[in-house]
Amino acid sequence: IPVGQMVSGEIVNVVDSISSRENMRDAKLIHMKHESGAEFLMPLTGTIKKAIGGIEGVKGNIGKTLAVIRQPDGETEKYGGKKKVFMFDVFISE
Question: Which regions of the chain are under pLDDT 50?
Answer without folding.
Answer: none
